[in-house]
Amino acid sequence: MMKTNLKDITGYILAGGKSSRMGTDKGLLLFEGKPMIQYVIEQMQPIFSKVVIVSNNPEYEKFGFEVIPDLIKDSGPAGGIYTALNHSDTKLNFMVSCDMPFVTAAAIEFVIKNSEESQIVLLENKARIEPLFGIYAKDCEPIWLELMEQKVIKLQEMVLRFQLKTIPVENNEIFATSFFKNINTKEDLNNALNRI
Questions:
Q1: Which one of 93, 106, 110, 164 has the lowest number of neighbouring Cβ atoms within 10 Å?
Q2: Is 76 annotated as a binding residue?
């Protein structure tokens, strides 16, 4: 098992653009009185010495972190990951979507602790790979760009082109049933609030 030095990992929050289904930036939507991205920040900040937000919206600067715009316009989460990899000066990078308010520091540390010499380390939940929560090596950047230029932008397909490690997490007490719930619609938001 690789002993990972946290100084060698940058934390990136993928805040994307305006959600057509929500009518606003998902990360700025209030969840229990706080913007959703704030929950992610609070869990990442104690772990990583450097946290960066990938977004075209300068409003995210109010959270006090560097905000970098997408290098490839309208390219979705794949473009956000590419932008982060291009920006990074660390060997490893931890990517998290801004719309995962149930993320915990314990879950982030679990992935880091279980990472090995792989280019990408992701969680697998009920046979589904979760590409928006995990480690991406800096050296993925050139092939990632090639895939995007070939119009391969479905994350589930892209990650399979790399040296990938998946960590099964079913029945793992660190991951509550709500952990993987992304908030994509107003109905999702209401359902999540009702579960609290």
A1: 106
A2: no
